Amino acid sequence: MKIMVVGGGGREHAIIKKIKENKNVEKIYALPGNGGMADDAECVNIGAKDIDAIVSFALENKIDFAVVAPDDPLVLGAVDALNEKGIPAFGPKASAAAIEGSKVFSKNLMKKYSIPTAQYEVFEDARSALEYIESVKLPTVIKADGLALGKGVIIATTREEAKNAIISMMEDKVFGNSGSRVVIEEFLTGPEVSVLAFTDGKTLVPMVSSMDHKRAHDNDEGLNTGGMGTVAPNPCYTPAHAERAMKEIFIPTMNAMNAEGRTFKGCLYFGLMITPDGPKVIEYNCRFGDPETQVVLPLLESDLLEIMMAVADERLADVEVKFSDKHACCVIMASEGYPTSYEKGFEISVDDDFGAELFVAGAKLENGKLLTSGGRVLGVTAIGDTLYDAIQKSYENVDKVHFGNAFFRKDIGLRALKAER
Ligand code: AMP
Ligand code: GLY
């Protein structure tokens, strides 16, 4: 079989490595991929948002199955376009990807179907949003409606900050049209848990839970990033929480999307907060998380491609989805200065005795050398019998990867270790 994976980061590298385990796979193309995954897939210079070129490539190369991993092409209708040409694909259609593409849509969905989430109001003009801020309880959370590269959420502790956020989103349009509507919502407290789930609209199977570390620096300080590391499973998520989330959030969300005529098929990402009142939804994503995927998929014991094909064919109930009971830790190695400005072009080298999984996100091949080309450069994932072992092993192997201006958090998994005790 010939497989095509759309996307080019560490998440896609983890997906590709797992798909490769299937014996029927002869060839995997990554569009665009990156130089660090050249051993696992043929990288094709087509951008993940170039839907026409993606479909043409799939037709010309007789692709048997496509996986669309990032949010942008999903929201833009990549799966619709592939399916129209008869190419089966894993991922939601545009109508279902709206669950991530529009926060107004997802908040209204949760309200309509009584799915637990933060109280909120939607604003379409800056003046009424600014007026509302005068009396809102602090801290308050301001979210741009549309996609904003993970930067569209501001937690404001003062009215001044809240007003500035509204002005920059709605008037200065720092996120373009994504900020033409905003959601202002109640600030929730509690540990955060990421749960990815396979669903074909009939069946929903949650994967092992995980914990992201979004801030750039140790002790959760510094700017928000795409994620600086992850562990799985997440010790804050007990079997009782999982049972409640399944009953109050996961199944109701699948049913709500069906009822709206927007059946979700693919990986549905639940960003949960375990509040004093139980699990509530902070956000939905219409895709695998990054870097959650880099700890979740290495723990998957079943055949990923088989599961993905079953999801596309709506026969998820017939396949096995089994996870190991071990632990995984992924430490992201970034370029110093990420997420703002950083230098690139440094050579990456890996010691011969490196003994973990390497998922490359921001690197390019030039004259046979692998050079850094992004903010998040790569992730080092290790598996252990305990969380402590996984963390230790991951950091041991981080020390075996070298590149100029390398930067990583030293405390990935520490919060989870404390929660375990
Ligand atoms: P999001 O991009 O929606 O994941 O939001 C980014 C981060 O902001 C989340 O991971 C939370 O840490 C935080 N956040 C979002 N919404 C809320 C909320 N209602 N209350 C508290 N924190 C929130
Ligand atoms: N790590 C969070 C996300 O993928 O959105």
Polypeptide structure, described:
The protein has 421 residues and is α+β, with helices and mostly antiparallel strands. The chain contains 13 helices and 25 strands. The chain is 29% helix and 28% strand. Strands 12, 15, 18, 20, 23 and 25 form a 6-stranded antiparallel β-sheet that branches. A 5-stranded parallel β-sheet has the order 3-2-1-4-5, with helices on both faces. The protein has a 4-stranded antiparallel β-sheet with strand order 6-9-7-8, sandwiched between helices. It starts with a strand and ends with a helix. Bound molecules: adenosine monophosphate (AMP) and glycine (GLY).
Topology, element by element:
Blueprint: E1 2-7, H1 10-19, E2 27-32, E3 42-43, H2 51-60, E4 65-68, H3 71-75, H4 78-84, E5 89-90, H5 94-101, H6 103-112, E6 120-123, H7 126-133, E7 140-144, E8 153-156, H8 159-171, E9 182-186, E10 192-199, E11 204-206, E12 211-212, E13 215-217, E14 221-224, E15 229-232, H9 239-259, E16 266-275, E17 278-285, H10 293-296, H11 304-312, E18 327-335, E19 349-350, E20 357-360, E21 363-366, E22 369-372, E23 376-384, H12 387-398, E24 401-402, E25 406-407, H13 414-420
Parallel strand pairs: 1-2, 1-4, 2-3, 4-5
Antiparallel strand pairs: 6-9, 7-8, 7-9, 10-11, 10-16, 12-15, 13-14, 15-18, 16-17, 18-23, 18-25, 19-24, 20-23, 21-22
Helix pairs in contact: 7-8
Bound molecules: adenosine monophosphate and glycine.
Adenosine monophosphate binds next to β8, β9 and β17.
